[in-house]
Amino acid sequence: MIRFENVGLRYGMGPEVLRDLTFSIEPHSFQFLTGPSGAGKTSLLRLLFLSLKPTRGLVSVFGREVTGLAPDEVAAIRRRIGIVFQDFRLLDHLTTYENVALPLRVMGREEASYRIEVTELLRWVGLGERASALPQTLSGGEKQRAAIARALIARPDLLLADEPTGNVDPTLARRLLKLFAELHKSGTSVVIATHDLALMDQFDATRFVLAGGRLHVYD
Ligand SMILES: Nc1ncnc2c1ncn2[C@@H]1O[C@H](COP(=O)(O)OP(=O)(O)OP(=O)(O)O)[C@@H](O)[C@H]1O
Prior knowledge:
Blueprint: E1 2-10, E2 16-25, E3 30-34, H1 41-48, E4 56-61, E5 64-65, H2 71-78, E6 81-84, H3 96-106, H4 111-124, H5 140-152, E7 158-162, H6 170-185, E8 189-193, H7 197-201, E9 206-211, E10 214-218
Parallel strand pairs: 3-8, 3-9, 6-7, 7-8
Antiparallel strand pairs: 1-2, 1-4, 4-5, 9-10
Helix pairs in contact: 3-4, 3-5
The structure holds adenosine-5'-triphosphate.
């Protein structure tokens, strides 16, 4: 599904932050991405989301080599990917409900066809009472859960999440992990970047460990 071959990444004239990355992400797989702060986890997620281009090597996503893709082809690939950014990126002028429903609206679906789905997911992530709240009135943990719900709502083929349990308590972190596990069970490949060892110990998954710019895979 995803293939990296000898991928390197540098920002501007800086040193290579990722070096010689060769790995695959298979359909229906679950992997944690970990490593010390600054090791390149967010950079790797951005390569997977096609918001960064590799400086060298080959990246292929859903069977398409990503260099030279036209903007509409990039957009089509991104519609198959759900992403939870570290800074949430909720739209300020939309309510929690509208933020979560956005991927479905972008796909051209009518509100009547998804109202129940969105409402149920909001309830599942504990935001049932906050559906009509604007993002600036949500707590950090609530924003995080809204961002997670938005990433999951369209049942993407690939889910990327950057520290998705960073702002929630351990009980809620377990609940969110369960949600990711259910999504995985229904066929989505999941990549969760995290520092949280306790979280990783709760789910038997491949570990991608970044250190010194290189990736080590532990199955
Ligand atoms: N836009 C940028 N311009 C220049 N350097 C960058 C940029 N983004 C990241 N870097 C550098 O790339 C390296 C990897 O950063 P990245 O954010 O990918 O690491 P990370 O593992 O996600 O860190 P953290 O766990 O702290 O979020 C760091 O040395 C960082 O300073």
